[in-house]
Amino acid sequence: MSDTHLDVPVAEPCAFCAYLRGERPYTVLFRSAEVAVLVTREQRGIGHLLVLPVQHRETLLDLNQVERHSIIDWLSVAGDAIDITFQRPGISVWQNNGTEAHQAIPHFHFHIAGTLGGGGTDFGDVAEVSISETDAIAMTIRSAVGVDFPERSERL
User: Which fold has domain 15-147?
Assistant: First the structure.
């Protein structure tokens, strides 16, 4: 539980922790000891990914230094993968802390996605895609990058 002044949403058990433990199906594009990159079922942009710490941390204020650095490094790698794969004219990155900032799941995460046809991303209601669809997105990214996703980290 966060030791900050932020009003963090309540959701127990944590959905992201359940995905990372393999208790609920979800597409994991990459996972290290500190960070996981997931293909979200709510595709708000082209190739919409989530970058999050493996350990449960509610907000930005709860991350340790190693997690902060690793998350930013992998956010950059995810951006490279989206750019190479989908060749969008823009990449959107966003992150929310606390219910007042529209945080819905109390596990810190960045969103990153290629822009939509008209620009930006879709912040309205979007239909969830299936796990087979998110698996296909992951396979498309892995194929386009040309190497296994973790090896794309030479920029780090």
Answer: HIT family, subunit A (3.30.428)
